[in-house]
Amino acid sequence: MEENNNTLFTVTVYSENQVGLLNQISIIFTRRNLNIWSLTVSSTVLEGVHKFTIACRTSRRQIEAVVKQIEKRIDVIKAFYYTDDEIIYQEVALYKVPTDKILDDNDFESLLHRSNAQILEINRTFAVIQKTGHCDETKQLYEELSKYGVLQFVRSGRVAITRSTVEQVSRFLEAQEERREEIERK
Amino acid sequence: MTGSEAIIKSLIAENVDVLFGYPGGQIMPFFDKLYDYQKELRQILVRHEQGAVHAAQGYARACGKTGVVAVTSGPGATNVITGVADAMVDSTPLVVITGQVSASLLGTDAFQETDVLGITLPITKWSYQIRRAEDIAWAVARAFYIARSGRPGPVVLDVTKDAQIGILEDFKYEPCSFIRSYIPVPTLQKSKIQEAAQMLAEAKKPLIVYGQGIILSHAEEELMALCNKGGIPAASTLLGLSALPNDFEHYKGMLGMHGNIGPNIKTNEADLILAVGMRFDDRVTGKVDTYAKQAKIIHIDIDIAEIGKIIPVDLGIHADAKQALGLLTLLIPEGNHSEWEAEFDACNAVERKRVSLPEIAPSEGPINMGEVVDMVAEVSKHSAIVITDVGQNQMMAARYSKFNQSRSMITSGGLGTMGFGLPAAIGAKIAQPDRHVCFFGGDGGVQMTIQEFGTIMQEQTGVKVIILNNNWLGNVRQWQELFFGSRYSQTRMLNPDYMMIAEAYGFAHRRVTERAELREAVEDMLKDNRPYILEACIVEEGMVFPMIPPGKGVTDIMLNANEWYTDGRK
Ligand SMILES: Cc1ncc(C[n+]2csc(CCOP(=O)(O)OP(=O)(O)O)c2C)c(N)n1
Q: What backbone torsions phi and psi does residue A43 show, to the nearest 5 degrees?
């Protein structure tokens, strides 16, 4: 994949559940004047471990330095960065459109179908449509819906899962468990 | 037992023997309990919370233990910020306890509430708010473990008032030795050391550049053994000073802006640079684009975020310096690079003749700054702990002090905090009461924390305060003369009568204006263990040279305001 100073990287950070972590992580980006493009926080399969997924455009050198500095924070367990080809990722978008406009249009059904979108809720005044996909896809749907007049639009941060078969964090935690036992034996 | 007592018992369990602090509303329950522990825990009342932190820094750096500070919330807490930031960038182990309003009031702008976590998170290794007495033992144990392990740094514990007064049924202190998300000392990768050994064996012009990491990991002997076995020259950063004695044959001087010519020039001729426990600060590298482009670079550091941060490396070794250098010495063949080493000496000889001797041994005119430093070094037989403030005094003290044991140079490097020196000297003297502690400060920096004279008076701490009075903010004046067309904007200082100030505090004191009196005055100062103020009235418009001007590369060295070093070739 071609890279430049403006590559979109996805940073994933695994951390303990501590107050103030989001702050600690975000200031590492702000200090370097890097704009966080999207950010999502969630739990993981590992108990008590939280995951931050941060998308940011910058150079490989910068992102590497940022990830090292994030990992340096005591309560951060592990941090990684990926380019888009190394991960499977999705975003969710919601669109609110006027009900009368879409009902008037014969094309609407097929547009929904084509774009793999669903209606979440509909009432007399508006309908809320949901689509998951990559940014360009949700953006395209936005453009196509704009002929109805989009009343509200929101897109979530990206969530991502790696393509690699091993979970590096689980490995790390296993190794740490062994270290703990060794230290306690001493 | 109350939470306050739990804190004190935890500190004692961590072998804390001295605490620097200042009381106030939200930390009163803790100070109240301290009253019962005056025998077990020495308590130093400073005159400003910034002084408490710098004193704790001086203490930590002089003896290697973690410095401990306790202050109140709000303004007490914000007054410690400068010191905490300083300790962060200079890797100093501290535990700073700040009082905080009761948990129920958090976030309400209660009297003397500040967001201590929010302010300190970016400048600490770890910050934590203790809201329940039950969490005290755990948090304090963790704080000490984090502060001193790996790359050391400051930790802030923000303790709410209700945690301080909360009642504990039972108290059990267990020191912390493991945190699952934290690996302070990485496992040594032998293959990488092997690779480094190979590179060193092949190098014709190797150079070791080291920093405070050597001192922090107690790797002084390993470094010396490596230099000896490989016949490798070594140069120090400002913070690495005293890790190797000045008279060690492979020691070639200090790097950086006002460092020695040999190591700076040779940085751009070496074929291999082995950097250990240093972070390629811009004051060391000058212009990064022209820094050691010809050399292969190996970087050993315990903080992986430093490796490749500024200078791209050929081999990065994430390791503890002591372990890495120990193994490396075993693996390298014996070597000799005496011709290469002689090149450093030749450069340094030019510097000595053109810059150093005129500074420390002038035949006439007013006293020079370097002369005072040199005299103190000589009379103290190179055995004093040298503390500096920031500015010309710092550079002169670094250049002309000599050291014969480690942990003898304490200065604010990364942050360059004026006002650091005086309180740091108090802490250092408390840590090492049997050594002379000589503090060199400018008339500007001394006045930034001059209120700590009160602490010296109360404790009768035998600090030797040497005020290098040039009636200017000298360092800035130098830059104005060199780079701002001699426009002396806000650098002229009208000074108080320091002798009257010394008198007011009851300190032994002396003012020196003549060269002929200097030796005797320094001898008088060092003849016993009293606090002493020596004011040296020195040349007003002195300058520190050699100098690599800001933005220039390591080989662009000014010998004086009009002349560049030319190496005899260019
Ligand atoms: C807290 C702080 N404020 C400002 C500076 C900028 N500064 C660096 S050196 C210097 C002048 C120091 O003057 P003085 O203390 O008299 O020492 P001298 O350079 O004359 O030895 C100043 C203002 C600083 N380093 N720290």
A: -85, 175
**CA distances in angstroms from B399 to A135, B349, B544, listed in the order given:** 58, 14, 10
Over residues A133-148, the pLDDT tens digits come to 999 999 999 999 999 9
Alpha-helical segments (H) within B80-135: 81-89, 116-120
Judge contact between B482 and B549, C-beta under 8 A: yes
pLDDT tens digits, A62-111: 999 999 999 999 999 999 999 999 999 999 999 999 999 999 998 999 99
How large a percentage of chain B has pLDDT more than 90? 99
Residue B4, pLDDT score: 98
**Residues B305 and B428 grouped into a single domain:** no
CA of B243 to the centre of ligand 1 (A): 26
DSSP state of B382: T
Give the nearest ligand 1 atom to B369 CA.
21
CA-closest candidate to residue B452, choices B465, B443, B440: B465
Q: Which residues contact B520 (CB under 8 A, 6 or more apart)?
A: none
DSSP state of A35: P
Through-space distance between the first and last CA atoms of chain A, rounded to whole angstroms:
48
pLDDT range class, residue A3, cuts 50, 70, 90? low
The three-class DSSP label of residue B289 is helix
The tens digit of pLDDT for each residue in B452-499 reads 999 999 999 999 999 999 999 999 999 999 999 999 999 999 999 999
Q: What is the reported pTM?
A: 0.96
Q: Are strands B409-410 and B437-442 parallel, antiparallel or unpaired?
A: unpaired
CA distance B143 to B127: 8
Distance from CA of B162 to the nearest CA of A (A): 19
Pocket lining: B476 vs ligand 1, CB cutoff 6 Å? yes
In this prediction the ipTM stands at 0.91
Instruction: Report residue A165's pLDDT band, with 50, 70 and 90 as the boundaries.
Output: confident
Looking at the domain A88-155, which fold is it?
Alpha-Beta Plaits (3.30.70)
A7-82 folds as Alpha-Beta Plaits (3.30.70)
Number of structural domains (chain B) is: 3
Residue B201 host element (H or E): helix B190-202
List of chain A residues whose C-beta atoms are within 8 Å of the C-beta of residue B309? 65, 68
Rounded-to-integer distance, Cα B146 and Cα B125, Å: 7
